[in-house]
Request: fold
Amino acid sequence: MKYVLSLLFVILLVGCKEVNSKDEQKLQNFVKEWNESHTVLKTPYLAPSYMNVVSYYGKQRTRAQVIHDKQMLFEQFPDYTQSILNNEIEVTSEAGKYLITFKKHVRYNGIEADYDSYLSVTLKNGDFRILREGVAETSNDLDAPIFPKARENSHRIASNRQLFGDFNGDGLSDYATVISPKIIGSSTSTSNDAVECQNGCDSVIVFSSGDLEDIKIKGAYQSQLENLKDLNRDGADEIGFWDIKPNSKTLYVYNATNGALLTEPIFINAAVHKNIKLIDVFKKSGVNKITVTRSVEEEGKWVLKSQIINLD
Reply:
């Protein structure tokens, strides 16, 4: 028994080694540069710091997904910075990898906070690469908007195209995306809606900001979002939704804060009025005024008609 315990003790000693001062200094420099690159202008410098696949705040992510998440963080909080509190770093070595622990000091949107953080780092081709990144589960305020969980909303949002803007009027950038229905085939109809969708052909606009309600558009299965800026002077950007069909395009103009339509849907007969763009159908024409142009059938012919809408 004594022999077994002694052998186990030796194995533990071999598995967990102290880091020599030269390597520790290099690791400290690596972590310092990594922290300093956490700004909106230095995102490209972060990519070489990661392995192709990373354990990122408890979830497996590719390097591209990690950098995309960082970009969203910096777009939401352009003033974001992070540093190592008191420049104190602890480094241990195990099985050829380095575990680096430190207290991360973050600043964003007038808020300052500290988090017990860690990186797991390895050497590849002579350079340090991050295998794991995260914070201690015992840290407070893990629901803070700077962590990946706050930007996920759902897996579907993360995999769809995001439209950035200030849709809730808080002065910070957030984003919207569309959850589209799954098309399962074509119907026998010859109409504009000649598709069949699983659970109905409806699309939903969802927002990264938790205080904004989803907006559901019935009968829409292909779409494009537009940031229409602040049209009604409420401090929040309005959002445009193109419902795209084979022979038509319809623009919905929503107040993102309450989901209300600011005008009747703007229909364009794409078979007649081709190559129509946003600027052709929608313009801001004064204080709380917009001009909309839509396709209208008159005496058997399709023409474009413009109308000024007051947003009082």
